[in-house]
Amino acid sequence: MIVWLNGTHGAGKTTTSALVQQLLPDSRVFDAEKVGETLMDITPALCRTDNFQHWPPWRSLVVETARQVLDYTGGTLVMPMTVLVEPYWREISSGLARHAIPLRHFVLHADQETLRGRIEGDTDMGPSAFRFRHLEPYAEAARTWLHSEAEVVDTTHLTPAEAAEQIAGSVRRDVGTRGARGAGEG
Question: Per residue in 106-165, pLDDT tens?
Fold first, then answer.
């Protein structure tokens, strides 16, 4: 199974994913950004872009890498990754479905003021224009498609630990329900 944590910068994906991993047995964190970093290291460089997600190989390699890792390890992959372009999300989610990989999609949400404050106060990465530029595209995606495609976890007033428990609890309930249905069938 894949537990995908979506949302814009400052929502808490990285911190929460590590905590979700601790709460779900046999799970690992897979940061799909590393796939993008690998593509950025190709020389000569691929065509210029401000976002490696625009490169079609990124999307297919994320699916294939997740599939290969799950085939090798089993269990659950917790994937913290912002995807705000609906066709890209459709490509990734349908690719996972073609491999019969169950997908739980969560969006970590916070209001714009909270997100700005978190980005400004980030002591690890510091404030960045790149992160601020994604606030409006996130708001647009949230309004038009993203929130209807996922379980939304409003992190505005939650600690990362509380958000992680909410996500892990939802996943455990879902797995328990599927297990109970499977045990009653047949």
Answer: 999 999 999 899 888 887 777 788 888 889 999 999 999 999 999 999 999 999 999 999
83 and 92 Cβ atoms separated by less than 8 Å = yes
Please give the pLDDT value at position 113: 92
Q: Do residues 167 and 123 make contact, with C-beta atoms less than 8 angstroms apart?
A: no
Domains and CATH numbers, the chain: 2-181 (3.40.50.300)
Residue given tokens 């797995």 in the structure block? 175
Determine contact, residues 81/13, Cβ cutoff 8 Å: yes
Residue 41's Cβ-count burial label (10 Å; 0-12, 13-18, 19+) is exposed
Residues 6+ apart with CB under 8 A from 1: 75, 76, 77, 101, 102, 103, 104, 171, 175
Amino acid at 110: A
- Would you say 6 and 146 are in contact if contact means Cβ atoms under 8 Å apart? yes
